[in-house]
Amino acid sequence: xxxxxxxxxxxxxxxxxxxxxxxxxxxxxxxxxxxxxxxxxxxxxxxxxxxxxxxxxxxxxxxxxxxxxxxxxxxxxxxxxxxxxxxxxxxxxxxxxxxxxxxxxxxxxxxxxxxxxxxxxxxxxxxxxxxxxxxxxxxxxxxxxxxxxxxxxxxxxxxxxxxxxxxxxxxxxxxxxxxxxxxxxxxxxxxxxxxxxxxxxxxxxxxxxxxxxxxxxxxxxxxxxxxxxxxxxxxxxxxxxxxxxxxxxxxxxxxxxxxxxxxxxxxxxxxxxxxxxxxxxxxxxxxxxxxxxxxxxxxxxxxxxxxxxxxxxxxxxxxxxxxxxxxxxxxxxxxxxxxxxxxxxxxxxxxxxxxxxxxxxxxxxxxxxxxxxxxxxxxxxxxxxxxxxxxxxxxxxxxxxxxxxxxxxxxxxxxxxxxxxxxxxxxxxxxxxxxxxxxxxxxxxxxxxxxxxxxxxxxxxxxxxxxxxxxxxxxxxxxxxxxxxxxxxxxxxxxxxxxxxxxxxxxxxxxxxxxxxxxxxxxxxxxxxxxxxxxxxxxxxxxxxxxxxxxxxxxxxxxxxxxxxxxxxxxxxxxxxxxxxxxxxxxxxxxxxxxxxxxxxxxxxxxxxxxxxxxxxxxxxxxxxxxxxxxxxxxxxxxxxxxxxxxxxxxxxxxxxxxxxxxxxxxxxxxxxxxxxxxxxxxxxxxxxxxxxxxxxxxxxxxxxxxxxxxxxxxxxxxxxxxxxxxxxxxxxxxxxxxxxxxx
Length: 744
Known about the structure:
Helix content: 40-55%
Low-confidence stretches: 529-533, 629-683
Strand content: 15-25%
Shape: globular
Distance between the termini: 65 Å
Number of helices: 27
């Protein structure tokens, strides 16, 4: 049975005499060890399937392991295995023991939406301000209390009143759940812990029933999960598998200390290390090692690969986020021509908001893509809400836009009022807008839309969009909370503002209209193509957190800049900064053969083009394992530019002005634009607003499109245009009056 395992894997599988900790490096066959160990316990140790508890973090992982085990010992054994997530396994125990805790066996399990709804009801009934006590924020506090095994319902707030209010909400929430014979997801763990703590006879029953416990992804466990394991394990019969270097879910409550301190909590633990990486090339593994070794809190290991040496990790410096997207799209097209499939590529980013330029560039080039574990940029709720406002301002008779935002943000126009407006409009054969104008409760809303409509062609899309976001209350609503869901919304809103600014500046340079109607036409074309081709080969776009457990032949890790990666929320804490470094380790180790790290010198932030600083993590990677010379063409390389070396306080919301870096030189190893035909249809050279004289044949650099060559000059004076063939961004016709061009 064990003949297909390497020596380290085999040793980890065969040890069943006490607690064991299996540290499984990236791509080292962690799942293989777990499945073989369970099969070994059944086939060689004489355990019955129902005497084994195997805990995973997803039902999908449990199903896949069961299928593998069935091939080893037979399907008839697998059906009796107690294998699943912590919540599913413990919910089964709670149904058996429900009466002991005062529930019935058919109790309901509330999901996140149910919990928030109940919390919202309680806040309203207590006549508390929902903007002060947002249901999502309150439930986060309640969840934190439960996962610390709190028996008291007291939650400490910033003031005595807040403490009393939160405690009252928590108390009432729990009372209502019990009255409804319901538990939320956190209760499944808390009630299991209390059951075992308060009823020793029940705890001993399950200790005797489960003679061996296995846990997958142990680095992702939280405090209460660890405490339940301490209650359940008897005679040290436990094996946990994980990798401290891949602990990246602290924001969900995961505690890396659980795996780091496992040997202290379970006396006599035997440590096994799976250090051979079967996924990646030697260069990728060595580069990842050099990065993660900079962390202080870790279990020492030396992951290695016996695969081919492979190419070095390519470090690519681009002028802007737009050129970054163009470069990656071009590289994908080139590799497709060399025989790779779209399924072989993944673009990984730190935050969801970074997906927009890549989505747009891939669409322009007809490349199928899929947003893995999320929605495409223009399908995200907060973006659809803003676009609905802009659509209604452009066309007040737009019924779908009207219905979407008539009461967002909340302005006291409920379903009853909307139904009356709809019935009136239907009866009179008019639009909802025309009917709403006559409703006093809608007066302020209608006045706002009308006033913005007057500016539709008076100001550019960026100015109008920014005013709408502020004056409609969208900005205040999205920035009213600090819970992760709202932080993501904030990032997306900022990126939408960036898209407006980029649209205006690009259109100005091209001599095209910059009004909101033109922007909405572009967005409509983008969203019309947002139906993802799930069954077609496609490039995968995802956050690094979503990429955990996946692998791809070619991986692009983008946005390697300070204030993006690492996240600005992490730079004032060594603990959080080390998690960010682990996150990059996870990203790099998703790659099998090719790995790119890219960063931009400038990108739009908060609607303004800003200079960027390369990520401090780039300096952590062994320089000998990076292909810099062929991809970075600045005089001053990334490692020579000033970078943070200590923990720094995150910068404020307002952009920080920085001196512009010097422009790049052409590297002899940089990909060059193909042979050009250079013409000049203008009798005299053209001059831009900075009094720079341009001629056909000039090598230039643009702050967003990067390096290129002017192939022709058309027109004269203020109408003069330069046709520029850019290295990665294609051919652009730019009105020199506005073009952000510099000579090289």
